[in-house]
Amino acid sequence: MKQLLNNLISNAIKFRQQGITTKVQVVAQEVVPEEKETMNLGGSESWYKISISDNGIGFEQMYANKIFQIFQRLHGKTDYPGSGIGLAICKKIVDNHKGFISAKSVLTEGATFTIYLPSKQ
Length: 121
Known about the structure:
Layout: H1 2-14, E1 24-30, H2 33-38, E2 47-54, H3 86-96, E3 100-106, E4 110-118
């Protein structure tokens, strides 16, 4: 879990907008019954949601699934350093905890990564 949060917060800092104070918000909460139903999280088991939002460069929403694939980059190595495995590792960690991760973004307006995890592993 430490690696998961480290990767997401590091990305928020790495992909910041120049000239703007970087803001990263981390919110964790239990998933309410209405959202459980909307997200199709069946059963009586409780779930938790962790959201990491930033005001960075963002990305086009059409790439939201691609960014979780290993070695997939939206920017060249000269623009932003990295190997292209950070978000793939995040997805693998969440998968190993029987949860799921998604991303929402608007180009130049930042991104939000949302993680859903069951309370019992």
